[in-house]
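call fold target=Pyridoxal 5'-phosphate synthase subunit PdxT
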Amino acid sequence: MQSVGVLALQGSFSEHLTKLAQLTEVLPVAVKTAADLEQVDRLILPGGESTAISRLLQRTGLSELLKRRVKEGLPVWGTCAGLILLAKNIVGEQPHLGVMDITVRRNAYGSQLDSFSCRQLLPALGAEPLPLVFIRAPWIERVGEQTEILGEYAGHIIAARQGKLLATSFHPELTDSDAVYRYFLQL
């Protein structure tokens, strides 16, 4: 059984932990300390407020440890704000972790009032259309040569993978589907 951590400093971490608890092959771990981060086999960076999460990563000393673990091959999945944290480039801002060769635009779909959900087939993530929930969501404007586009919505990249790094601009933890979780567990 592999331990899957969820960064539990701010954002939708409890929803991810609940979703992981429904999967029999994983042990969900709330990651709040360096000791927690050292023990996990995989990590999810949840949606929330990317600037707040980044500051908390710095304050807790987890930022440099997380970068090191990524370099060592730790599979990491960032959803929404987590995607922003992973990005090497953020339009109009300084990067946070800067470990994934993507350029993102924060709040690309608009404000909280512009949040929406839909269903769409993303063949790399499953054979059935997935429920997609976008909350003040970013999109990916550019990917590097080593980064694979996994899905688009309305002409914008919403899912990408670079090696063992996965980024989605939507919130699978707020749906009844576990398809993206299963994809992540196979990285």
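return ok
The first strand starts at residue 2 and ends at 7. The chain has a mean pLDDT of 94.
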